[in-house]
Amino acid sequence: MIQLNNIEKYYANKGIKNYVLRLVTTNIKQGEFVSIMGPSGAGKSTLLNIIGMLEEPTYGSYEFLGEDVTSLNERKRIELYRNHIGFVFQAYHLIDEMTVYENIEAPLLYKKVGSSERASRIADLLDRFNIVAKKDLFPNQLSGGQQQLVGIARALAAQPSIILADEPTGNLQSAQAEEIMTLFKKLNQEDGITIIQVTHSEKNAQYGNRILHIADGIVKEDVAILS
Ligand code: ADP
Ligand code: ADP
Fold it and tell me: What's the pTM?
């Protein structure tokens, strides 16, 4: 599903290249649940953003679902992103002026999904995540855990094949974090959604089936978790 070949990323500053990623080569198959771990500044978010097409590598090739991402123009990349990828952020990134319902609906409007289909998908997600009663509230009226459920519902609305999550429980208490990780595991095992998360938490990583350890922009270890 994801094939990264010799991916490099640097930021140039006064002619000096500061490398964030160096020659990262890895393959992620459909149905995997991968955790990217490593020290702060190791390049984890950068790698996730490259996988999610939010950032471009400075060198190397990237194939997503058989498409050579590095050769696509921006319009094609956005289309590929909208059709296949759901992003979940540490700080939720919900739109404060929109209700829960409207936040979940936003990606469906971008994709021009018809109104009855929109309503039924949103109703399913609200029901599934137990937030029906919150649908007309605004993000700042919700707990962090509830906001993250909305963030995940929004990411799922367009029925992506993959969820990318950057420290999805980084701002949450441990009970809420466990709820979110249990949900991810279910989405992976029952719905077959591929999941890639950045996490500092060994406990969170244990919900998945593989850990990529990154340090200094290099994949140091690639470990399977046997359950
Ligand atoms: P987090 O690691 O919590 O996701 P950020 O992604 O905001 O935090 O930033 C990660 C690191 O990247 C930080 O150390 C920050 O200083 C650095 N950083 C982010 N943006 C820039 C930038 N435009 N120029 C230089 N350093 C940056
Ligand atoms: P991690 O997620 O592992 O904490 P990041 O991928 O956020 O690491 O950042 C890795 C390195 O890239 C950091 O040293 C950071 O300073 C640098 N960096 C990130 N974004 C920028 C940017 N826009 N400009 C310059 N440096 C950046």
Answer: 0.88
